[in-house]
Each structure stands twice: as structure tokens, then as C-alpha cells.
Amino acid sequence: MLDPLAALTEAFTSFLFGKVETTRLPVRTSTGQAQAVYLPTAAPGLGDSGVVIGREVYSGKGYIYDPFQLYGQQLPAPHWLVLGESGNGKSALEKTYVLRQLRFRDRQVVVLDAQGEDGVGEWNLIAQQLGITPIRLDPTAALNGGIRLNPLDPSITTTGQLALLRTIIEVALGRGLDERSGFALKVAHAYVNETITDRQPVLTDIVEQLRHPEAESAETMNVDIDDVRAWGLDVALVLDRLVDGDLRGMFDGPTTAGIDLDSPLIVFDLSHIDRNSIAMPILMAIVGVWLEHTWIRPDRKKRIFLVEEAWHIINSPFVAQLFQRLLKFGRRLGLSFVAVVHHLSDVVDGAAAKEAAAILKMASTRTIYAQKADEARATGRVLGLPRWAVEIIPTLTPGIAVWDVNGNVQVVKHLVTDVERPLVYTDRAMTEDGRDLTARELAAEAAAAERAAAAVADGAYGSSESTVA
Fold it and tell me: What pTM was estimated for this model as a whole?
């Protein structure tokens, strides 16, 4: 029972100051207030048009990305850099991304597949399911009627041919051509193009002309013919490797007829080439320039050029210069370049630091999987990542990555559907259940996967979601 004195005191206080006890109103907040309080989960998304990648870890929202849809308003360039150590999900991301892009009728993808698995490239299984035969560049197979790409293909402009020849030689030499060697190459190339009109000129013709230059070549510079021959000797020896050395058969003849450049997916299988040899950047340079002049056309198609082991391009100043031109024209031609690299230190600390920085600057989208703390800090400095993103990179688990889309930074969990799982994992020998999908089963499950992806986009995550292993 209330003490009379206390009751009297409470009544007197209420009379003077008003009622002390008040009813507490419900807490209400607006979206703007919530965003101000919970900044990590309030960053705007990338829109709802494109391909489903997965979901944002902090907000749970579906994460949708497409460089062609975002270009202009949110992206200054459509190019994409993917970084991370092996086993964290890079391969699964790039493969599901390509499969989902191919659902759009105006998409076309070229893949330089430098990773080997079971004697074939990593993309072989996907190519099989899509009814596509990879273009396998293999010196052994080339000698027995395999695929050839001609650096002197008439579809490549004369200027492009000469630039490609210089790049091949400079990559092999590890230095730039001096003026005299460059002159000898230029003269030999011009003579071959002018005199051979009944067939495709080939590298053998260039080598022969370098070894036995015409008298006119010396007369134009008022020098002795023996000097011109000496100037071109080193060049001839380098090109001879493509004609009669360990790379013979792939580039020393006319381009193989019947290569389908209208296929939605074109896979160049480079898995039979030693990825640590000088042959790999030479191959990538030749394929890149050949594609630039034969595949990329000013039509309405959106093209994706995905390169695995891309450090072979970015880390060579001579190859990087060729690809810089390709990337610069990419926006006008509807081209998105995707470079997959294990470590950023592979490219920024090399001889091509200047060229690497230029290419990295063109990549407005960067995806970073788990790295060691020191590597993450170095990556953060080069790419300008916020501090919280740098700190979280070493803690990321497989399938989760930091996405930086022109300053919009999110932590994203990649989604792999059941139908994609057997096609995209590179550790199938450890995880596969022996199931072999038929074309009919693939089509049936593709419909289920499409429904699952749509559910993810709406924020509903069901049993179709799985973590990349």
C-alpha cells in the first residue's frame, strides 16, 4: 500500500510539473534513417538488369552484375579484373558468369583457356555440353593437321601484322627491337606482302627474306647488302622458332579454314602449352591480334573476352601494349575484357609495371577473393580499396569475394546452381558423384536453375544455393 506521505508528495509534484509517468510511444524510423545508422548494409545495389552473381553478405540482397547494362551511368569502362589464390572460387565464378551471359541472344564469348585438366582445357566440359569444339593450339597436333593461326592472315591489316611480328620478337628476346633490326623486319615484311599475291603469306616467307634480303632493300638506305642481312639475323632466328622450333605447326601456315567465329562461345585451348614458358605470351599476343581483326566487328553484339592466366599479357610490356589498344576500342565495339590473375604482385612488380597500371586502370570492376594479409594490403593500395575491405579479404571463405564496381564496394557470396555445379568446379575428381548429365537432363535442369536464379534476384534463397568449394 502506498505511503500517505509519498502519495501526497507525488500529487503535489504532478500539480506543479505535470504528470511524471508518460506512455512511451512506439519507435518508428524511415528508410533514410536506417541507412544512416546501418551504413554497411545500406549501399545501393547495381540494379536489377543483368546476370545473377549471388547475394550481398551483409544485406542479403541479390547481387546482379552486367558491364553492358552498367556502362555509362555507373561504369566508365566494361572491363573486369578477378584476383585471388587458387581454390577460392575464381574458376567457378567466371564459368557461371559466362553461362549466364550466354542466355542473352546478343552475347558472344571468347575464352583463352590456359589451365589443363585431364589432358584438356578446363572449359572442355562446358564446350561439350554446348556442342562446341574448342580450338586446341597444340604443337604436336598441329603437325598432324591441327589448328593453325597465321600472323600474316590477310584479314589482319598490314600495320597490325607488323606490330604483331615485332611483339613476337620482342617477347622472345626480352627487349625491344633496335632500329636496324626493326628496319630489316619492316623491309622483309613489305617485300613479302608486295610479291606474294597468289596465296596467304606465311612466316616462312619472312624468315627466308630476312636471311636473303633483296638488293633493293640495301639500296633504299644506301648500305651494303651484308649489313641488311646481319641486321635481320636475330629476327630470323626468333621467327624460326615458330617455323621449325618448339612452336612449329601452329603459326607457320595459312589459317585453318572452318573456325566458327559466329559461335556464342569460342574456346581457345592453350592447356598443352607450358604456361611458364615464353611461348604462352607469344600465343596470347597472336590470338589477341587475330581476334581483334577477325572476330570483333562493329555490329550490335556484346562481346566478352576472358583470359585465364592473364599475367602473361599484363606482365609483358610488349604484349600489354597490343592489348591496351584492344581495350581502348572495347567500349566502341561492345567488348568487355575479363582478366583472371592469381596475385596482383605478379604484374605490378614486373618489367611491365607502367603497362600493367594502364590496363588495371581500365578495369572498372575488380573482384578480390581471399589473399594473405600482406598481399591484401598491397592489393588495397594498388586498387584503392577502402580499409574495411582490405581487412576483411584475408578472412574470406571460398566463394565469397570483395566486389569493387567503380567504387561501389560489397562483399558478395557467389551462387552456384545444381545444374551448373558439375560443369564449373575444377576439383571434380575430389567431389564428383559420377553423374553424367545428358542434353535432355541439362535442358530440364536449366529451367530449374533459371527459376532459382530469379528467386535469388528477388531475395528468396532456397536449396539451389551452394557455396563454391
Answer: 0.77
